[in-house]
Amino acid sequence: MSPQLTYTEYLSTNQNFISAFGRLRPGIDLSQARSELALLGAAINRAIPSDPDQPDERTSASATTLNEARIDKTVRRSLFILLGAVALLHLLACANVVNLLLGRAAERRRESAVRIALGSSGRRLFRHLVSEGLTLSLLGGAFGIALAAWATAVIAPPTNVWAPRNFYGSLAPFDAPAFRWAEMAFGIALVGLTALLISIPPALAAFRIDVSAGIKAGSRGIAPGGLSLRRPSSRGVIVGLEAALAMLLVVSAGLLIESFSRMQKAGLGVEPENVLTFWVIPSEARVPPAAAPEFVSRILEAITSVPGVVSASVDGGGPLSGTANSTLYVIGRPDPAPGQAPAVLRHYIAPDHFRTLAIPCCEGGASPTPIPQAARGSS
Fold first, then answer.
1. E runs forming strands in the chain
2. Among 113, 119, 274, 354, which has the minimal tally of Cβ within 10 Å of its Cβ?
């Protein structure tokens, strides 16, 4: 299989970043598999250590579930922040609807009093008010679920969107977002919870109706349910809750916008203007490993010969991504404790790389010659 992955020696050399997939036998749990793999990794490291002088690069083996392995911790943290904002917005919408239903119940206080006087029970009136809130929740939930299913299909990235086929970090089919039965069940459960949140407070008012006062007051029956600073009511509490949630959302959105603005203004260390990038991953059958340097040189010569191109370079990944990590050790300084050495991105570049991306060389060589505002290429 190795020639079909990336290069011939991909699986036959001592690599320590390979992920393998396996299915546990019946009766074997994940902790047992991790224990056995830890012993196996230690045995591999003793037999063919990556580098005995670099303890941070020792070979090891561990196991995790497929669902955990496909989720990036940074992305998960961002999604939790987004989920919190959506939850606050949902509570704010529920508070708005509850307040509207409470106002409607106050306006219909005379009608409710007449119903009870004619023989309708408070329990029946309670069910009637709950059904109104349930209908609103079902209509809104059905629209939301349909919108979520449509939006997921529209915005879901295609497979291998981040990189070409058979390249590190490319999205597999199980990474792509999808709207399935689990998401449908979550939406239905959320609709049920929303129905309770917006239906119960107005419906409870049916048990607190003074029939005699409600019939005599007529349209003045609205006053007891109004807002008052001297006499706090349920509507007043909900209005205060709405204001608090709205303020929290506005402040959080402002902080996120400010953070995003500061991140955009942060220096990248490169000059991205007028730089074009593209991928070149030829088949190993057409370009054997021995012919790869000559192949890259021909590509760079062809690019630099294009009118308007000032400089060209090659890199295994983008300036802020890289293709792999390496542990950093400084010559002449003591090695850090195991696990404390910093990791840096590793790049394989052409000699004119710093000049192409306008990366200043502070020490160790002359600064690159400034490039005029013309097209610079980086393959």
1. 275-277, 309-313, 324-327, 343-346, 375-378
2. 119
Residues 6+ apart with CB under 8 A from 360: 354, 367, 368
Report whether pLDDT(306) > 90.
yes
Higher-pLDDT residue of 259, 102? 259
Of 214, 230, 265, the residue that ends a domain is 265
Question: What's the token pair of residue 204?
Answer: 């409870």
CB-based contacts of 347, cutoff 8 Å, min separation 6: 315, 316, 317, 322, 323, 353
Tell me the C-alpha distance between 169 and 72, whole Å: 11
Q: Is the dihedral of CA 340, 345, 349, 352 positive or negative?
A: negative
Do 93 and 143 lie in one domain? The reply is yes
Q: Is the pLDDT of residue 225 over 60?
A: no
Placement of tokens 């030829």 in the chain: 282
Note the pLDDT of residue 224: 47
pLDDT in tens, 109-120: 666 666 666 666
Residues 367 and 247 grouped into a single domain: no
What pLDDT score was predicted for residue 379?
43
Asked if residue 65 and residue 93 are part of one domain, the reply reads: no
Q: List the domain range (segments joined by +) for residue 235.
A: 73-265
Whether the per-residue pLDDT at 177 is higher than 80: the answer is no
Report if residue 214 sits inside a domain: yes
Phi, psi of 310 (to 5 degrees): -90, -40
Judge if 101 and 250 occupy the same domain: yes
pLDDT in tens, 191-220: 888 888 888 877 776 666 655 655 555 544
Please name every residue paired with 345 in a beta bridge, in sequence order, or none if there are none: 325
Distance CA 379, CA 370 (A): 20
270, part of any domain: no
What's the CA angle centered on 168, arms 162 and 170, to 5 degrees? 35
Q: Please, what is the average pLDDT of the chain?
A: 75
Final residue in a domain of this structure, among 69, 103, 125 = 69
